[in-house]
Amino acid sequence: MSDLGTFEDIAVINPQTPSASQGENVSFVAMAGLSEQGRLDEVTVRNAVPGYTPFVEGDVLVAKITPCLENGKGAHARHLPIPLAQGSTEFHVLRARSGTSDRYLYHLTRTDRFRRRAEALMTGSAGQRRVPAEFFCRYEIRVPPLEEQQRIAEILDTMDEAIQATEGVIAKHKLIRTGIVAVLLAGNPVGLLPSANREPTDTPPSAVSDGTKQPPAISEWPQHELGQIGVVVGGGTPSRERTEYWGGPIPWLTPSELTKEHSKFVYETQDRMSELGLAASGARLLPVGSLLITSRASIGFCALAGVSMATNQGFKSLLPSDVVDPSYLYYVGQTLGREMTRRASGTTFLEISGSEFKRIEIPLPPLDEQRRIAGVLDTVDEVIRAHRRQLAKLRKLRGGLAADLLSGRVRTVVA
Question: Binning pLDDT at 50, 70 and 90, where does residue 211 land?
Fold first, then answer.
């Protein structure tokens, strides 16, 4: 006997829900309150207002509008402060029928296959495309017996718990990192820091003394303008119409290739240009160790050149002199976004000029202390990167396992 069916077989689509009286307190979930990992990030309590989507404890929420659907917005409404709830008008609500596991129903809505098919059947104009309710009546799913549904849900819940725990470890290490940077740049030498390898806590590290004589605090170290400790260089873009300018050996970096989560060094770029392109662009070949920092639109993202390269005009790069350690400069560079934005100007988009960038001051401890500071932060960053690699593996494993279990390619067995 086939166990195939549709969502309509196991859930009521956008069910009738008793309406709260106007002014009655209800749980409320905005679209922003749903994470892209399928969790409820924020639930508030507010007075009921006509017009919002009603739902109750245990219902499954699915974003129906682009790009929220494609990005994975959705959640299982559990542990609500008030069982009767309202939410965004851009939610579809699924309520498990009798004999169906609501967790199994939830996991069916979290697969890549589900989102791809839903996206393909969206209706409406660009920017306002939505998944029609009829999609759930046509989308084919496997409907195993309740006991198997529950086993599948338990397995996937266990994977989700491991993923969430790893995300929490990363968040705590990032908090530690923020605390270490604050301690160091507030005037505390490396010798005053607790171990960078300690177990994460909810409290950023604070300075502790070991009774030995310490180097001067950063507040006592001289402040230097960036223009005093290196050469500030802009970038450029050669003509796209001249094919001889492109496809050469020189990496050419654009701001879109840097994010907050980018690694310390850049080795590869999406585009490369030729020697002719470099000469025609007005850009300069930047040596290894140059600080590359975005100066327009998204201001303040930075990295170090891992190989000789050039950038487009969306960067102000700093070629450090021998008084500054490149790794120290990188970590200080990560703190400059707010000051760069304050000094930026422009109507279409904000951009900081080279002259303003040169005038930004940073603390400059002795070279050996710079290297110690960079070493501590390198250690913390490597711990974070290791956990991110583990997180990527868990998410990949979870995706494959969900596809196998929910499709029936892999069947669960009774323990």
Answer: very low
Return the closest-CA partner of residue 197 out of 58, 381, 351: 381
**Which CATH number among 3.40.50.300, 3.30.830.10, 3.65.10.10, 3.90.220.20 corresponds to the domain 4-143?**
3.90.220.20
* Of the candidates 224, 219, 207, 195, the residue with the CA atom closest to the CA atom of residue 329: 224
Joined tokens for residue 173: 């290490």
**Helix, coil or strand: residue 103:** helix
- Share of residues in the chain with pLDDT > 70 (%): 90
Mean pLDDT for 10-34 is 91
**Cα–chain center distance at 378:** 20
pLDDT digits (tens, 9 = 90+) for 400-409: 999 999 998 9
DSSP notation for 162-230? HHHHHHHHHHHHHHHHHHHHHHHHTT--GGGSPPTTSPP-SS-------SS--PPPGGGSPEEEGGGSE
* Residue 262 confidence class, pLDDT cut points 50, 70, 90: confident
Contact in structure between 34 and 75 (CB atoms under 8 Å): yes
| Arithmetic mean of pLDDT over the chain | 89
Q: Which CATH entry fits the domain spanning 222-364: 3.30.1490.20, 3.40.228.10, 2.30.110.10, 3.90.220.20?
A: 3.90.220.20
- pTM to 2 decimals? 0.78
- Residue type for position 34: L
Nearest of 133, 128, 119, 136 to residue 53 by alpha carbon: 133
Amino acid in the structure at residue 269: T
How far apart are alpha carbons 286 and 283 in whole angstroms? 9
